[in-house]
């Protein structure tokens, strides 16, 4: 019998691809951090210099990183407004998850506000981005190793479909165990939205405050980037329960791919536009700012509308908001939407995501490619994720999926892709 993860190895390039990504992703993150503060700010050029280890390593940065994780873990353990059940597992059980991510965001904001009013030098945070990113990367590597060792003694029913290939490099990268927990504390669910997303908007805020110190007040472009991305993070945490049906939670193991992505990649690369604006101020008039706000609003409308429609249908297909939508029956008993947002393209939420990504980059102007890295990266990520979704759905729904694809021929962008 072929190893359970053999198909996934082809998907990610196997052990060689996993090893390459474990080097390439941190290197890309550090490259972006270095070039964002350089004069030329060239995305495709070499970094202005290679930092010495003394510039990367800081015990204070590591302590700050671990303190941040500890704070978010403490907020995770607070009483939740709701406890939700996840998808049914191999052993027919369902795990329970606290829905208190938005509460954690609000409490973090209150604590930061109190800290700043008491003299916390938040505006000094941008000067620590390199050592903080290094500390987060180191934490992700050690955490992934501990997760891998924990998975070695996990029962077979607890292993992820793709991270059980038998190759230690590949399994370390993808993650062997599907839902690693200690008691009720779910490590993957905790990392998915809490420390990285909230850390992202905190870094944005620190960059805004430092710009205010340097130039007297934050620029309109900086306000737009902070506002757009805070809306996105707030939305994700307000609708936290929806993450329980994503591929990250129900299919992928928890290894370096997700640990590094959640703890390091998200806060330090998704804040790239704000980093760029601190070192390369961009004048922005109200007419253009209004157009950019409209673009972001359109993207958010599509993103939120599509996700809400999907989540409502999954919870209760008889809900009046979705009861009249046309569907296709499948052999599994589930039905596929072929009207509404999901009759326009197969992944309308991805389309909304990409439109918002464009709006986040436009305040930075068009003289540099660097601020558009997120849009380019996210396009590649969503196209790859869409291909994984297609394969999963084809295996799950068979002929019904072929019928759905005939009804909805476009994947992400109508009449283009």
TrEMBL record:
It is found in: Endomembrane system; Endoplasmic reticulum membrane; Microsome membrane. Keywords: Cholesterol biosynthesis, Cholesterol metabolism, Endoplasmic reticulum, Lipid biosynthesis, Lipid metabolism, Membrane, Oxidoreductase, Steroid biosynthesis, Steroid metabolism, Sterol biosynthesis, Sterol metabolism, Transmembrane, Transmembrane helix. InterPro entries: ERG24_DHCR-like, Sterol_reductase_CS. GO terms for molecular function: Delta14-sterol reductase activity. GO terms for cellular component: endoplasmic reticulum membrane; nuclear inner membrane; receptor complex. Its EC number is 1.3.1.70. It catalyses: 4,4-dimethyl-8,14-cholestadien-3beta-ol + NADPH + H(+) = 4,4-dimethyl-5alpha-cholest-8-en-3beta-ol + NADP(+); 4,4-dimethyl-5alpha-cholesta-8,24-dien-3beta-ol + NADP(+) = 4,4-dimethyl-5alpha-cholesta-8,14,24-trien-3beta-ol + NADPH + H(+); 5alpha-cholest-8,14-dien-3beta-ol + NADPH + H(+) = 5alpha-cholest-8-en-3beta-ol + NADP(+). It comes from the Eukaryota. Catalyzes the reduction of the C14-unsaturated bond of lanosterol, as part of the metabolic pathway leading to cholesterol biosynthesis. This is Delta(14)-sterol reductase TM7SF2. The gene is TM7SF2.
């Amino acid at each position: 019998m072929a190893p359970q993860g053999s198909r996934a190895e082809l998907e990610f390039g196997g052990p060689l691809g996993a090893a390459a990504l474990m080097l390439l992703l941190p290197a890309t993150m550090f490259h972006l951090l270095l070039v964002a503060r350089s004069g030329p700010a060239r995305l495709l050029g070499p970094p202005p210099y290679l930092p010495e280890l003394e510039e990367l390593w800081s015990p204070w940065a590591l302590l700050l990183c671990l303190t941040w994780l500890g704070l978010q873990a403490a907020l995770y353990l607070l009483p939740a407004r709701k406890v939700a059940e996840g998808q049914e597992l191999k052993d027919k059980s369902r795990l329970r998850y606290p829905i208190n991510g938005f509460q954690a965001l609000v409490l973090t904001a209150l604590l930061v506000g109190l800290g700043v009013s008491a003299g916390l030098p938040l505006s000094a945070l941008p000067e620590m981005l390199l050592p903080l990113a290094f500390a987060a990367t180191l934490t992700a590597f050690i955490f992934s190793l501990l997760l891998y060792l924990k998975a070695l003694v996990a029962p077979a029913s607890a292993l992820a479909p793709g991270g059980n290939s038998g190759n230690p490099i590949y399994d370390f990268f993808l993650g062997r165990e599907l839902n690693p927990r200690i008691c009720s504390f779910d490590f993957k669910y905790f990392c998915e939205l809490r420390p990285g997303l909230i850390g992202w908007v905190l870094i944005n805020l620190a960059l805004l405050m430092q710009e205010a110190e340097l130039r007297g007040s934050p620029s309109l472009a900086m306000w737009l980037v902070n506002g757009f991305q805070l809306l996105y993070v707030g939305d994700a945490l307000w609708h936290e329960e929806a993450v329980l049906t994503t591929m990250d939670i129900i299919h992928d193991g928890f290894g370096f791919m997700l640990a590094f992505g959640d703890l390091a990649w998200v806060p330090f690369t998704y804040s790239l536009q704000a980093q760029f604006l601190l070192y390369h101020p961009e004048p922005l008039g109200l007419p253009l700012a209004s157009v950019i706000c409209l673009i972001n609003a359109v993207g958010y409308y599509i993103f939120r509308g599509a996700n809400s429609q999907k989540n409502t249908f999954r919870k209760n297909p008889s809900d009046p908001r979705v009861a009249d939508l046309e569907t296709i029956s499948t052999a599994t008993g589930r039905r596929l939407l072929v009207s509404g947002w999901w009759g326009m393209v197969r992944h309308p939420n991805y389309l909304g995501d990409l439109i918002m990504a464009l709006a986040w980059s436009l305040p930075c102007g068009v003289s540099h490619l660097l601020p558009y890295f997120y849009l380019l990266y996210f396009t590649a990520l969503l196209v790859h994720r869409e291909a994984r979704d297609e394969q999963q759905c084809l295996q799950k729904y068979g002929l019904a999926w072929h019928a759905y694809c005939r009804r909805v021929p476009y994947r992400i962008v109508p009449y283009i892709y």
